[in-house]
Amino acid sequence: MKHQNTDRIDSAIRGQIQSELPQCPQNPWFRNKVMNRLPARRSRFASIVEWAFYVVGGLALIGGWWSAINAMITQGPTPSTLVLSLLPFAITLSAIAIIAIPMLRRSAHSL
C-alpha cells in the first residue's frame, strides 16, 4: 500500500514539474552538436589492457627498485650500481610527473 502511494505522489510531482518547464526550441543540429562534443567511447577491452599495462609497469618498477637496492647492498657504491640506482628513481619521478601534471592543470582550470 505504501509503495503505491509513493508512486502516485512521484507521478503527481513529475507531472507538475514537467508542466511548468519551458519547452526547448526545436533545433535539428542540437543533437549533432552535443554528440560531437562528447568524448569518444572506449571499449572495455582497451580499458582492461590499459590497466594490465599499468600493473606490469608498476611491478617492473618495483623490481627495478629491488634490483638497485640489492646491487647497492651486495656490491657497494660502484659507478654501475649508482647508475642502476638512479634509473628507478628517474622513472618514478617521471611516472609521478605524468600523473600529477595533468591533475594539477585540471584543478587550476577549475578554479
What does this entry look like structurally?
- This protein is mainly α and 111 residues long.
- It has a domain at 46-111.
- Helix content is 82%, strand content 0%.
- The protein contains 4 helices and no strands.
- It has helices spanning 2-20, 30-37, 44-75, 79-110.
- Helix 3 runs antiparallel to helix 4.
Descriptive labels:
111 residues; single chain
Summarize the structure.
This protein is mostly helical. It contains 4 helices and no strands.
Count of alpha/pi helices: 4
Q: Tell me which oligomeric state these chains represent.
A: single chain
Name the shape in a single word: elongated
Element-by-element helix/strand order: HHHH
For the sheet with most strands, the description reads: none
Write the layout of secondary structure elements.
Blueprint: H1 2-20, H2 30-37, H3 44-75, H4 79-110
